[in-house]
UniProtKB/TrEMBL annotation, chains A, B:
Residues 18-78 form the HTH tetR-type domain. Signal peptide: none annotated. InterPro entries: Homeodomain-like_sf (IPR009057), HTH-type_TetR-like_transc_reg (IPR050109), HTH_TetR (IPR001647), Tet_transcr_reg_TetR-rel_C_sf (IPR036271), TetR_C_15 (IPR041669). Keywords: DNA-binding. This is TetR/AcrR family transcriptional regulator. The keyword DNA-binding applies. It comes from Actinocorallia libanotica. Residues 41-60 bind DNA. Pfam families: TetR_C_15, TetR_N.
Amino acid sequence: MTDRRLRPRKRPGQLRAVETRERLLAAAARVFAEHGYAAGTTNRIAEAAGHSIGSLYQYFPNKDAILVELAAAHARSGIESIRRRLEDGPLPETLDGRLRLFVRAAIDNHRDDPALHRVLFEQAPRPPELLEYLQEAEREGISAAERLLSADPQVSVTDVAMAARLVVNAIESLVHRFVSGDDPAHFDRFENELVDMLTRYLTGPR
Amino acid sequence: MTDRRLRPRKRPGQLRAVETRERLLAAAARVFAEHGYAAGTTNRIAEAAGHSIGSLYQYFPNKDAILVELAAAHARSGIESIRRRLEDGPLPETLDGRLRLFVRAAIDNHRDDPALHRVLFEQAPRPPELLEYLQEAEREGISAAERLLSADPQVSVTDVAMAARLVVNAIESLVHRFVSGDDPAHFDRFENELVDMLTRYLTGPR
DNA sequence: CTCGATTGTGAGCAATTGCTCGTTTTCCTG
DNA sequence: CAGGAAAACGAGCAATTGCTCACAATCGAG
């Protein structure tokens, strides 16, 4: 929690080193998910990875850097998941269908490892560097949403900018809440209702 | 972070003691809000309150107990705020008006001290005792919402149970996000749009 | 005023943490 | 095989933390 620099002190060259780094990251994900951020000590992470702390500190300058790496990877995978779905087939015809696509992507990305997601985005300290990265990603999401909403004749909302923020934040927040919560079975009902909520909101009467 | 019991070891009897306890709690709120949970050390809290750590540990068995006390107080104040608004005047005639009442209460309760709220409900560990308290409060809120929605002829939603959960969680999550974020001015626009979203959702076409 | 009970004090202990650094092991090049 | 570089190791240090406990100050009942 001391050094602000997040760059690795040594970039892995040999294959062996790359594997070590990956094992350390995977172990960190497991340890953080199970013990939380504060109790997820660097020694524990190294031990769980089957390596020494010395090795850990060869690839990460401090504990925060590990967390940032995990969080950024998670965010990237979310964005990638949406991109893949968009390229996979044509954009759904109905607004309803398009919203469902985004909601599904969000659910999948959260369902992956809710415990880790909780640690990363709730209880862990978020260094400014990570915050900027996440805010930038959110801003992109919002402006993309804004473009989609503006171009859609079905959308009857007046304050499109605020609507875009609401939609993006609603999906992110609510999915996070429901997946983190103890509702393993009701995901379908939740998905339907959330899509319904957004659709009715966006296409509602003047 | 050791002792599970959260009961105070000594209940203050004299006025002097009550004041000490209150000064400690107020200082804890300030320190947590400014430094976060991990860096909000018990020594720092005691110092900020103008007392010794010894006194702190006479009224709180451990650090967690202080946090739980603050969180519970915050939740209580939120519930109280809604109750006051409901008793203050008659229940608004329109669904729109009723929703706005709840949204306003949520905004006010969050606006009070966003930094502290962040610490309490995001980065700090939530002991099971507190979690149960909060879940119970949420369940009450949801079932109250469910009753209101069922009784309302304007409400056209089919899955009323899930709708109640969505509405309560949407208000809580979205208000939290927007108030915590850096949007001091756009609160009105946000309030309007959120009320609009919920109204259209609940009264939308079959 | 007396004197036990309540309240307040703070030096310091035991435990834990993030992290360093001197050393050993493994790999790659020629 | 030689030998230098890259990778891995892990005992242990410096700093911090939550918390104890022996004692001092203050209160209030008789």
